[in-house]
Structures are given as C-alpha cells and as structure tokens.
Specification:
Layout lengths: L1 H15 L2 H11 L5 H29 L10 H22 L11 H5 L5 H14 L1 H17 L5 H13 L1 H12 L1 H41 L4
Helix pairs in contact: 1-7, 1-8, 2-3, 2-9, 2-10, 3-6, 3-7, 3-8, 3-9, 4-7, 4-10, 7-8, 9-10
Length: 225
Amino acid sequence: MASLWGSLVPLILGSALVPIQVMITLLLLRSKSGRVTAVAFVAGLTFTRMLQGGLFGLILSNAAPETTTSGPGVILSVVILLTGLLLLVTGIKQVFTTVDPDAPPPKWLAMTESVTPLKAFAIGAGMLLIQVKFWLFTLGALSAIGAANVGQPSASIYFFVFVILAESLSILSVLFAYVAPKKSSEVLEKAAGWLRANNRLLVIALGAIFGVWFIVKGLVGLGVL
C-alpha cells in the first residue's frame, strides 16, 4: 500500500494546509459560542466529505482502470494534474493581487463573531461544495483508493482516515480548546492573527509547492514525463 499512501499523503497535506479551513475554525473558537460552533463547523466539513465519498466513491472506483504498482490510473492522474494547475493558478493570481491594508475585513470574517452552531455547520458543509480545490483533493483521494483496488471495507477505512487527516489542524485546534481552555485562548488567538496576516503568502507558497508537485505527478502518471 506504499503507492496508495504516496498518492494520498500530498492530497492530505494539500487539504489540511488550505488556510481558510483552519482560519475559520480558530475564529469560531473565539466567538460567543466558542467551542460548540467550532465543533459544528468541523462536523459540517466531515459531513460533506463523507457525502462526497458515498456519492462518488463507487463511481470512480468502477471507472478506474486496472492499475499496477507502477503508477496511478488515468482518472487519478487527470485529477492530480487539474489540482496542480488550480493551485498554481491560484498562487500566481495572489502574486499579482494588490492588497489594501486599510480595506475592511471580509464579511465572512465578521460573521464568525456571532454565528450559531447551525450556521457554523452550514458554513463547513457549504464551503467544501463551492471551493473547487477541496473537490479536487477529495476526488483525488477517492480515485487513488479506487485505483488501489483494496476492496471493502478497507476502501471506506482509507477514505475515513483521509477525511480525519485532511481536517487534522482544525480537529487538533478544537481538542486543544477543550483540553486547555485558558491556555488555548491566547495561543489560538495568536495563531488566528498570524494566519490572517500571512494568508496571501500561504496561498502563494501552497500554490507553488503543491501546484508544481501535483502537475509533475499527474504528467508522470499520464506518461507525458
């Protein structure tokens, strides 16, 4: 299963390191409802990913051609290539985007201050539906698992592990807030501030590093390189 993890690990890292997912979690932890809304947000993320797994896992598994240990299937390679192109384009756009330091904060940033748990769940579930990069990460994971031909229930277990690890930074933040509420308040506040201040640089770095890596891996899987 080394080849499967070789495909899953970059997808896990790419999903986990998308700044907006972690930033919203940290901002919700400091809101009025605090930990409850953060848990609801993570539950929304998990719900959508598991729904995607149920709806598309069987389709992609049946569509994936028989593969060998020499590399991923065509579907997986195409998804990885598209993921890389999207990340690279997103990073390049950020390079040429002028940021106004006096501009007001985004509406979603202010909304996290008073959001209810139900709305937090809807934000988590909806964010994954409208963000294309999250779709590609998840479909890439499903394609990798399907191409590995591990069968059931192993395929479901692998995908569940992918979901948990893709949300690991948010999950760890929530656990930290529950285990050490006083200490975590200051630490998570600083982390949220750092993410807001460096969000653009993180997107650029994510696009450059993972974008190039995914493009190369996708082209190798398609036999172009």
